[in-house]
Amino acid sequence: MDSHIARAVRTPSRANEDMRLNYVIYSVPFPPPPTTYVMSFSGDRDFESEELVAYEFGYRFLPTDHFSIDIAVFYNVYDNLQTNESKDRFSENGYLVIPSQVENRMDGETYGVEVTTNCDITDRWNLTASYSYLQIQLHLDASSRSTTEDRYEDSSPHNQLCLKSELNLPYNLEFDQLLYYVDNLSFQNTKNYFRFDVRLGWHPVEDIHVSICGQNLLDNQHQEFGQSSGANFTEVERSVYGKITWNF
What does the alpha-carbon distance between residue 148 and residue 108 come to, in Å, rounded to a whole number? Predict the structure, then answer.
């Protein structure tokens, strides 16, 4: 049994305090006269440190010499979290500026559990299963004009599962299999998915290791994250590769 309480602080960066970024410029011809808009993002000299207090509790259960269960429970409290606040428009150098600014107008909590089981079926075969649950709850100040909380709450999977099999075969062969499940990310319009990987390894001599691996074997490709910061998402494709390692 083990428990911890920890505190962490993220001090403001130079960008949080002094940056100004004009990241989109566009013109609207109608109604006359044409208007040119500038999307602007800036820091704030009054930006404060973000704070975290973390509570963790863990327990390991050993019913037999060949089977174990590890449970970890966590609860994190955040204060003064960064938000991107919309500000009033203003004219500058013939442009109409649509500004936003970093401020500390959000707090929140994250909590969850992680469970891992490990079982030695035989001297050559080991099975591991792990599961994690994560819940994020963020709260904006009443005066906030930000939508930051939706982005963070729904961009991390609530449920993840991993099953792993490691088998040592005769003639110095190894055969490993991994199955992953990852929950959907609703804010990023990303569906849940399964991923299956396999690896066949061989030690012809003690210092040389040869392996061939297959990744994402269940489908041709799948999306893991959505569009972010104007960049289009990419999909992870099925792949096979080989590797030779020589230790000397």
Answer: 12
Distances, alpha carbon 154 to alpha carbons 24, 136, 224, 226, in Å: 26, 8, 13, 11
Q: What is the pLDDT of residues 164-200, one digit of tens each?
A: 999 999 999 999 999 999 999 988 888 999 999 999 9
Q: What is the pLDDT of residue 151?
A: 79
Give phi and psi for 167, each to the nearest 5: -125, 125
Q: What is the pLDDT of residues 118-142, one digit of tens each?
A: 999 999 999 999 999 999 999 999 9
Rg over CA atoms, the chain: 25
Q: What are phi and psi of 45, to 5 degrees?
A: -65, -20
Which parts of the chain have pLDDT scores under 70?
Answer: 227-232
Please choose, from the candidates 156, 75, 147, the residue with its C-alpha nearest in 3D space to the C-alpha of residue 106: 147
Cite the DSSP H helix spans in 106-198.
Answer: 148-153
Dihedral of the alpha carbons of 229, 10, 143, 19, in degrees to the nearest 10: -50
Q: Are 149 and 139 in contact (CB under 8 A)?
A: yes
* CA distances (Å), origin 220, targets 160, 164, 238: 21, 22, 5
Instruction: Classify 18 as helix, strand or coil.
Output: helix
Q: For residue 232, what pLDDT is reported?
A: 67
Placement of tokens 């994690």 in the chain: 132
Q: What is the pTM of this model?
A: 0.84
Closest CA to 81 of 152, 22, 187: 152
- Residue 174 CB neighbour total at 10 angstroms: 16
* CA 60/CA 67 separation, integer angstroms: 11
The confidence score (pLDDT) of residue 229 equals 53
